[in-house]
């Protein structure tokens, strides 16, 4: 019996979920097959063969895998991004690299990236995250939407995105998430008022992770977990177990997914055991919290009470996904929102701290749009154009997810070379972000480049896709953006954000994470 079934119980034996409104049809439309065939004419007479794509040669059997080990030129944890930039300078906007048995084609031309997305077809494919695939097979859990392809992927995705991608639905949670963010402000204020702190908060990232978990909990669980306190979380508390489990998960996940040999697929390695324990931990805690939510929401006749902002109720009411699939989606959302959104907020605060003029301009916009002492709602968020520009520019310089990967179901010509079907195509947006032909003065933090009424605007399509693109874009994008915007508004509204010491660097754990958090907060007058 699967972990979710053991903790939560069977669909039929628990209770029948009363029907919630159908929220929205899928937001992405599919392009006709004829267009795909026209653009993916892979055997054009002028196209050169796959073997002629330039790139590093590597060694027999393992290719260039040794270069990404701790002793290589591009250690995965600290220097992976440099490999794509250096190889692009050497080989051009398309190159081929062999990592063990896998061929990887890396492209950094926005027009070619657009061609890839236009040829995704009705069922866009991506290679599975093998460590999660193996884990869920062992635990007899559903694969999860990220690891599905084909019609099964479309069935799950088209159903669950109705609760995740409609702006009106997401906006209904803005005031609840704003309440969480105002509690974070209270914590920052209390910590910085201590005489010895001088405005600096030790391990500020840990408080941001608590804020991120609390913010997604009010959506998925319809409750507060009590994370945002001045005290350390109890070691065995639900919140601390979730945060620790997700942190350990990402540590192991990066090592397993980037392993050239992949011994964990055959034997239980120490890294695999740590990874398995971490996922067990946050799965168990999340499933327990979900069970409590479901039990609390029952009426006397065993049905759920209806609510306009009951995400779980709406998710479970879908007839085209199983109970286990819906519950696993809720589990994944609780976990995914901690590090990803938390790290993104940290990167934005760092960019604002290092660029006080941009911070002041954002502060002025906040004061114009958000009345003092008033809650922030989705209508206010929609008016904040400079805020959105700040977030985009931060994604360009400090991406949480630097690149996008796809495989296509047919051959395609990219930059004049035939790329066979099922080849991993790596779209190097992080490389594009560093090139002056796409971003003048690429090293400068300049949110104005994203404002349409600015003379320097005019960023090309497909140069920056922090949440992916098309039918497989990040399914939690709208909630993540709303949460991030609220966090920036409240922090900048209340504090001037400064920085002390050596600049922040990013480390790779499959997502990018900060290596330090030396912020200095001073109360605004």
From TrEMBL:
- Source taxon at top rank: Eukaryota
Which PROSITE patterns does the record match to this protein?
CYTOCHROME_P450
Q: Which GO terms describe its biological process?
A: vitamin D metabolic process
Q: Name one GO molecular function term.
A: oxidoreductase activity, acting on paired donors, with incorporation or reduction of molecular oxygen
Q: Which InterPro entries match?
A: CYP11_CYP27_families, Cyt_P450, Cyt_P450_CS, Cyt_P450_E_grp-I, Cyt_P450_sf
The UniProt record gives the binding positions of heme as 474
What residue ranges are annotated as transmembrane? none
| This protein's UniProt keywords | Heme, Iron, Metal-binding, Monooxygenase, Oxidoreductase
Q: Which cofactor does it need?
A: heme
* Similarity-based family: Belongs to the cytochrome P450 family.
Query: What's the protein called, per UniProt?
Result: CYP27A1 protein
UniProt source species: Branchiostoma lanceolatum (Common lancelet)
User: What taxonomic classification does the UniProt entry list for its organism?
Assistant: Eukaryota, Metazoa, Chordata, Cephalochordata, Leptocardii
């Amino acid at each position: 019996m699967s972990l979710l079934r053991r903790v939560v119980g069977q669909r039929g034996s628990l209770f029948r979920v009363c029907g919630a409104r159908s929220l929205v049809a899928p937001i992405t439309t599919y392009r006709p097959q004829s267009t795909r065939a026209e653009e993916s004419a892979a055997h054009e007479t002028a196209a050169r063969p796959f073997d002629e794509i330039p790139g590093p040669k590597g060694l027999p059997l393992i290719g260039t895998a040794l270069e990404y080990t701790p002793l290589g030129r591009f250690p995965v944890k600290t220097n992976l991004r440099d490999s794509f930039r250096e190889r692009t300078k050497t080989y051009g906007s398309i190159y081929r690299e062999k990592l063990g048995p896998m061929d990887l084609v890396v492209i950094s031309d926005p027009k070619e990236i657009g061609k890839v997305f236009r040829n995704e077809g009705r069922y866009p494919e991506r290679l599975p995250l093998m460590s999660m695939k193996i884990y869920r097979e062992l635990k007899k859990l559903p694969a999860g939407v990220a690891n599905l392809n084909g019609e099964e992927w479309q069935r799950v995705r088209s159903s669950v995105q109705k609760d995740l991608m409609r702006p009106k639905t997401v906006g209904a949670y803005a005031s609840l998430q704003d309440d969480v963010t105002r509690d974070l402000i209270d914590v920052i204020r209390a910590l910085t008022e201590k005489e010895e702190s001088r405005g600096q908060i030790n391990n500020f990232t840990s408080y941001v992770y608590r804020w991120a978990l609390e913010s997604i909990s009010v959506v998925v669980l319809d409750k507060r977990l009590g994370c945002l306190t001045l005290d350390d979380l109890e070691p065995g508390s639900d919140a601390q177990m979730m945060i620790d489990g997700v942190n350990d998960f990402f540590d192991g996940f990066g090592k397993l997914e980037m392993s050239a040999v992949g011994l964990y697929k055959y034997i239980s390695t120490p890294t695999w055991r740590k990874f398995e324990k971490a996922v067990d931990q946050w799965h168990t805690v999340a499933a327990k919290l979900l069970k409590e939510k479901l039990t609390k929401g029952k009426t006397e006749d065993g049905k759920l009470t209806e609510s306009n902002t009951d995400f779980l109720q709406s998710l479970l009411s879908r007839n085209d996904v199983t109970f286990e699939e819906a519950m696993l989606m809720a589990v994944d959302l609780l976990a995914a929102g901690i590090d990803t959104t938390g790290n993104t907020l940290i990167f934005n605060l760092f960019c604002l701290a290092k660029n006080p003029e941009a911070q002041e301009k954002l502060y002025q916009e906040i004061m114009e749009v958000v009345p003092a002492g008033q809650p922030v709602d989705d209508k206010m968020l929609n008016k904040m154009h400079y805020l959105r520009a700040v977030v985009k520019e931060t994604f360009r310089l400090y991406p949480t997810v630097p690149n996008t990967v796809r495989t296509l179901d047919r051959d395609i010509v990219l930059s004049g070379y035939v790329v066979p079907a099922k080849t991993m195509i790596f779209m190097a947006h992080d490389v594009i972000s560093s090139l002056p032909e796409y971003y003048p003065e690429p090293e400068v933090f300049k949110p104005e480049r994203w404002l349409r009424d600015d003379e320097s605007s005019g960023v090309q399509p497909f140069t920056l896709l922090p949440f992916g693109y098309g039918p497989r874009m990040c399914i939690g994008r709208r909630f993540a953006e709303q949460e991030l915007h609220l966090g920036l508004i409240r922090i900048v509204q209340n504090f001037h954000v400064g920085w002390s010491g050596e600049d922040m660097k990013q480390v790779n754990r499959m997502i990018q994470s900060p290596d330090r958090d030396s912020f200095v907060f001073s109360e605004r007058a």
